[in-house]
Fold:
Amino acid sequence: MAWISLTVPELNRIEEQKEKDTFYQLPFNMATVTIFTDGTATLFPGAGMGDGLFFSDLKVMETMIQSKVFPVTGTDSIWEAEKERLLKLNDSINVYTSQLSDLLGIELKFTAEESFLQLISQRLNDKIQSQALSPELEISVAIFIGEIIRRKHTGRWVLFPQFTLNVYYIPELTVANSYCDPIHEVLSAFAKSSNNQIDLHKIASQIEFFPIENRRYVDVPSD
Structure:
């Protein structure tokens, strides 16, 4: 076989045993290509997340790089499967909202009104008690609350890239030169929900903003 998918520790062991000829970084996913003097090569994920590749045929590697699609196992992040919808997030907001409305049995509106968010929170807490959570539900809630926060602060959606070989994205919000991460806040609340009640009004009203500084984003096309 001209290539094989390997873990990062396995790729490290190969590099320790071979003599390097050259190396360079791919600009679109920050992966590192290392070519050895025996004509083989490794492809490391940019952030060390997920698997990488070992190649015995450089032409196969070059073709794969040109395609920007790599046959590797991902990180099991719930956001990997959402990549295409996130790249069109402004158009997908209504899709996520409709999905959440169906899952909760509530007609949703983009309001930070406390009584409304408490109603949604109670429906979610009921689902937690009955162990009826799902990735689709958690994602939809995170995007919905993020959109409420975006409208409240007149912000914009951006995508924070996760540099596996097949790049995926996590949505964040920016307002002027600051950003916030409502997605993390909502998903963290779900992760802690076995011991605590979900409180979406608290998340929406107490969201923290931080300086963007050197964070690199992918823009979401305007709706």
User: Anything to note?
Assistant: The chain has a mean pLDDT of 93. The helical segments are 8-17, 58-67, 83-86, 89-104, 114-129, 135-153, 182-191, 200-205. The domain at 80-219 is CATH 1.20.120 (Four Helix Bundle (Hemerythrin (Met), subunit A)). The beta strands are 3-6, 20-25, 32-36, 41-44, 52-55, 156-162, 168-175, 178-180, 210-211, 218-219.
